[in-house]
Amino acid sequence: MKTCLECGEKIVGREDKKFCTDGCRNAYNNKINKDSTNFMRNINNKLRKNYRILSELNTEGKSKTTKAKLFSKGFDFQFFTNILQTKTGNTYYFLYDQGYMVLDNDFYMLVKKDI
Fold this sequence. Notes:
Elements: H1 22-33, H2 38-57, E1 62-66, H3 67-72, E2 82-85, E3 91-95, E4 98-102, E5 107-112
Antiparallel strand pairs: 1-5, 2-3, 3-4, 4-5
């Protein structure tokens, strides 16, 4: 007899079933995937906010913007997911598939990776 991983109730149905209901499955996965500390939650929120700002400003896949415009929307330049250094020496900072490169005179090139 198998029991639900979330509530311990008896499971009826398929042999490989792990949860008695969708509600138990959702509750179990939400517990596992939640941010374990305020520190992690705050960083993830900043990453999400930066991503939303880049996505909003870069609807075409490649565009330019100013540092002032990014700041006015609340962009935090300290938070990004990875850095890409090109063979030509350009440095791109990425938030998942949305990225930016510093240009002259406080301008930024916004790009989107094809994934």
